[in-house]
Design goal:
The complex is a heterodimer of chains A (137) and B (303).
Chain A (H helix, E strand, L loop, with lengths): L8 E8 L3 H7 L9 E9 L3 E9 L7 H6 L4 E6 L2 E6 L6 E3 L20 E6 L4 E4 L7
Antiparallel strand pairs in A: 1-3, 1-4, 2-3, 4-5, 6-7, 7-8
Chain B lengths: L11 H16 L12 E6 L5 H12 L3 E5 L13 H8 L5 E6 L4 H8 L4 E6 L5 H15 L6 E5 L6 H10 L6 E5 L8 H9 L4 E4 L11 E4 L10 H7 L7 H4 L7 E3 L20 H19 L4
Parallel strand pairs in B: 1-2, 1-3, 3-4, 5-6, 5-8, 6-7, 8-9
Helix pairs in contact in B: 1-5, 1-10, 2-10, 3-4, 5-6, 5-10
The chains are: A mainly beta (137), B alpha/beta (303).
Chain lengths: 137, 303
């Protein structure tokens, strides 16, 4: 199967097989007008199978969240059809409205105007905790 | 402007300062009788409370200030659907300082984010209860004279007992303390507290039998299994009387053991223990007022 190369945009590579739609939703791509190609189950030397997302001319994408989802993901920045930069993903200090606090006693469960805010508690164990009740993400 | 949401919002030096002021209030309350004259405390209690609310109010009145507030959701605009943010924005115009108790965890932070006056967390669900911790600190310091080199046993509901979490995290900042956690498997101390202790090299052990370890303790902190924290009545009934401290269990304890309890107690300490000189839980409740006087003076920057 042939999927066209993009001229300007992002190639999100090494996404775990089957997880591309999660990334699509996390990056809120459904709210954007840009062209998106989702390629599933591509053969990969590193992963066996992987997913790839190609996004043409994106605006305002919060890539930090990818570091939270999977640090093995690579992001290539494409300009004029050439990869000009490979973005290194790091764990964001804070993630907003990506995961929902599962503690039924958390204030976010009753005060619905509050953002679902999680902060990095331990980078070693990749642990995030709810800013309000300290529940693990 | 400072808020107190978590006992760790105060550094060790600030905690020591408040405890020293609390001890001064304890020995000469009259000296502070006009310290907060003209100031107003708002007590926003979305959950019932006896000691915390009354000690806050008594503390403010003892320093010449006034008190406004509510003691249940039913007597406020919450029944009309008002959220915490709007309530606190309004109250900020009517008071100089606010103590809030709310059943949801993290509610005091929401209040602080929307307030223009200092907020004191008077208990946010099973999460934090810093003024209870400071009360415990004042009781411990006034009896033992120190916060270090102590073996502290905590017994009962260590999962939902917010006073336990706050106390452990705070006292773990002082050197050479050791914790003994006594709880059934269902009510163990949470993993994140264990992680904090491990990370900071603070020794602790866990057991489900009080008698086996009571002899090692300088302080025994008993807790109530709280009905309001359970979703399942059956589970509550099964666990509620799992530990009852009585004279027989105390026979193996040190003569200078300090028995503490944040109160209210239900069955976890037998009435026969009340007359034992080691039982200090009513004294501890008394410390609550002095400590809250000291804390409000600090937050309102009059001391």
């Amino acid at each position: 199967m042939q999927v066209d190369s993009i001229k300007d945009g992002l190639v999100i590579d090494h996404v775990a097989a089957g997880k591309s739609m999660d990334i699509y939703h996390y990056l809120k791509l459904d709210d954007m007008d840009c062209v998106v190609a989702i390629i599933k189950n591509v053969r990969s030397q590193k992963l066996g199978r992987k997913d790839v997302l190609k996004i043409e001319d994106p605006v305002d994408i919060d890539l930090d969240v990818l570091g939270y989802i999977d640090p093995n993901i690579t992001v290539n920045i494409v300009r004029n059809g050439v990869i000009v930069d490979k973005k290194k993903l790091s764990l964001p200090n804070e993630i907003t409205n990506v995961v929902k606090c599962k503690n039924p006693r958390c204030v976010t469960s009753s005060e619905n105007y509050l953002p679902q805010l999680f902060t990095l508690a331990d980078a070693e164990t990749r642990t995030y905790r709810c800013r309000y009740c300290e529940q693990k993400a | 402007m400072r808020h107190i949401l978590d006992p760790l919002d105060l550094s060790v030096a600030e905690t020591d300062e408040i405890i020293a002021l609390g001890e001064s209030v304890m020995s000469d309350g009259g000296k502070y009788s006009r310290a907060l004259s003209g100031k107003i405390l708002a007590t926003l209690f979305y959950e019932p409370s006896t000691r915390t609310r009354l000690s806050f109010e008594s503390a403010m009145l003892s320093m010449g200030g006034g008190v406004i507030g509510f003691s249940s959701e039913e007597s406020s605009s919450v029944v009309k659907g008002e959220n915490i943010a709007d309530t606190i924005r309004t109250v900020s115009h009517y008071a100089d300082i606010c103590a809030i108790r709310h059943p949801k965890e993290g509610s005091a932070l929401v209040a602080a984010q929307n307030a223009s006056i200092p907020i004191i967390n008077a208990g946010d669900g099973g999460h934090q209860h810093p003024t209870q911790t400071l009360t415990d600190f004042l009781a411990i310091h006034s009896i033992k004279g120190r916060f270090d080199n102590l073996t502290i046993g905590l017994c009962g509901d260590l999962t939902f007992g917010r006073t336990v979490h706050s106390l452990v995290r705070s006292i773990a900042r002082y050197p050479n303390n050791r914790f003994i956690f006594v709880a059934p498997n269902e009510l163990r101390i949470p993993g994140y507290i264990r992680q904090i202790l491990i990370k900071n090299g603070v020794p602790f052990s866990e057991t489900s039998t009080l008698e086996a370890v009571i002899g090692e303790m300088d302080i025994l902190y008993m807790t109530r299994v709280q009905k309001e924290r359970f979703f399942n009545e059956e589970e509550y009934l099964r666990l509620k009387d799992i530990y009852i401290l009585d004279k027989r269990k105390l026979s193996g304890a040190n003569s200078d053991l300090v028995i503490m309890h944040p109160l209210p107690r239900v069955n976890e300490i037998a009435r026969e223990v009340d007359d034992d000189p080691r039982a200090r839980y009513f004294y501890q409740a008394q410390c609550g007022k002095f400590m809250r006087m000291a804390l409000m003076m600090k937050l309102l920057e009059v001391m």
